[in-house]
Amino acid sequence: MTVALELRRAAIDAGLSATFVPTGQTGIMIEGWGVSVDRVISDFINGTAEWLVEQAEQMGDWIFVEGQGSIDHPAYSAVTLGLVHGTTPHAMVLVHQPGRSGHFGWEQNTGVASPTLSLPDNIRLYESVANAVAPSRVAAIALNTALLSDADARAEIEKVAFQTGLPVDDPYRFGADRLFAELRASLEGDAR
What is the DSSP string of 52-101? Predict the structure, then answer.
């Protein structure tokens, strides 16, 4: 949610028409519209997500959809899949938290390990899942560097950018202007 809101703000600051599509309770409280997709019956998530994007198309040219969960999370992947398939994004911004334990935390309750996927594996998975319905790609990575010092955060941003070849930043910590500018340049280059 925070990444989508920050990217929308950066787009507006750049003079563009942009909107944020709320898909969770807090996003709805911020924007005053939307649907809490984790409360939608799974058969209807895709259609609800499509309907939300259709509403957003009347509000702006740049549409930033609030993400939910993760495609590799054992409990929340269904909501994420419905959002990806229903919104048919032109591009996706993958959010990642360096320094996280690498597990979803179910081990203590279930005895079954549920490790998170690596960043490259997540990129491939999101692109594969999205492309089953419509062409899309991970076009940028937003890092949540809250567990790192400023120096370590900047080093991690540079490392991930080098490893992936994608625009990378922490839009909450360092602002979204640079990440949005790089994302915009990449997407406008695709349109040519």
Answer: HHHHHHTT-SEEEEPP-S-TT-TTTHHHHHHHHHHH--SSEEEEE-TT--
Give the DSSP letter of residue 40. S
Burial class (CB in 10 A: 0-12, 13-18, 19+), 150: exposed
Q: Alpha-carbon distance 54 to 107, whole Å?
A: 40
**Dihedral (Cα; 6, 12, 18, 22), 10-degree rounding:** 30
Per-residue pLDDT of 138-192, as tens digits, reads 999 999 999 999 999 999 999 999 999 999 999 999 999 999 999 999 999 876 6
Closest CA to 175 of 154, 155, 189: 154
Say what the pLDDT of residue 116 is. Answer: 77
Phi then psi for 172, rounded to 5 degrees? -80, -45
What is the token pair recorded at 74? 């054992």
* Amino acid of residue 155: A
**Could you tell me where the DSSP H helices lie in 107-176?**
107-110, 119-131, 150-164, 171-174
Residue 10 has pLDDT above 70, yes or no: yes
User: What is this structure's pTM?
Assistant: 0.92
**Helix, strand or coil for residue 169?**
strand
